[in-house]
Amino acid sequence: MKTKMWVSLSAITVLILSFQNCAKTTVPTTSDMNGGPVFPPVKYNKYSVNEFTTMSLWDESRSRFLDLDLSNGQVAAFEEAGQVRGESYCLKDEQLVAAQTILSGAEICEPVVDAEQAQGQMCAMLYDYPYVTMVSQANQAKLGERTSSCDAPVDLCGQKAQQLRSWYVNIIAHITDGSVTKNCQ
Fold first, then answer.
1. 119-147 in b/e burial notation, b at 16+ Cβ within 10 A?
2. Rounded to the nearest 5°, which phi and psi values hold at 31?
């Protein structure tokens, strides 16, 4: 009887200790704009935003896209996640100029992933929807999109990324109250 108890106690102890993982992991990380871990790359392919004529803004609270024509400030809403055309808006001149100023001289930084560094990394499944998609006739760039916890998002380079995010948050928050829009004529 005592032997069975000691064997059971020993088995439970071994079982508990075998599931402990006390080792520290030392994985080099940097921090992205959301504060989450992002693994290298540190290298980026850079290209100009000059070819893009439209910004498609994702309005999550209303499940719609807002397509902004960067030349004239006209905004077309597409409801039901882009399936049905909805309302139209026109940005006030100062809002359009603010967007054009942010984009003036801006470059898009697209992370370059080193296949050797990426091999063997453990990444959590994650999807961050792009806050803005830059659109031209031939290309699109989904700014802020991530498909795993190891991804660094494609975004504008440097401080322009934070400036565009701030502009975007303001537009989405006030698009329906009239403080960032005017009557379309």
1. eeeeeeeeebebbbbbbeeeeebbbbbbe
2. -115, 135
Q: How far apart are alpha carbons 129 and 13 in whole angstroms?
A: 45
pLDDT in tens, 36-61: 444 444 688 999 999 999 999 998 88
The whole-angstrom separation of Cα 18 and Cα 11 is 10
Query: Which amino acid makes up residue 2?
Result: K
Compute how many other C-beta atoms are within 10 angstroms of the C-beta atom of residue 158.
11
Q: 3-state SS of 111-179?
A: ECCCHHHHCCCCCCEEEECCCEEEECCCCEEEECCEEECCCCCCEECCHHHHHHHHHHHHHHHHCCCCC
Tokens of 52: 């893009």
Instruction: State how far the Cα of 72 lies from the Cα of 53, in Å rounded to an integer.
Output: 10
- pLDDT of 8 over the 80 cut: no
| CA terminus-to-terminus distance, the chain | 92
Are 182 and 88 within 8 A, CB to CB? Answer: no
Distance CA 144, CA 131 (A): 6
For residue 129, what are the contacts with CB-CB under 8 A and spacing of at least 6? 58, 60, 144, 145
CA distance 156 to 49: 9
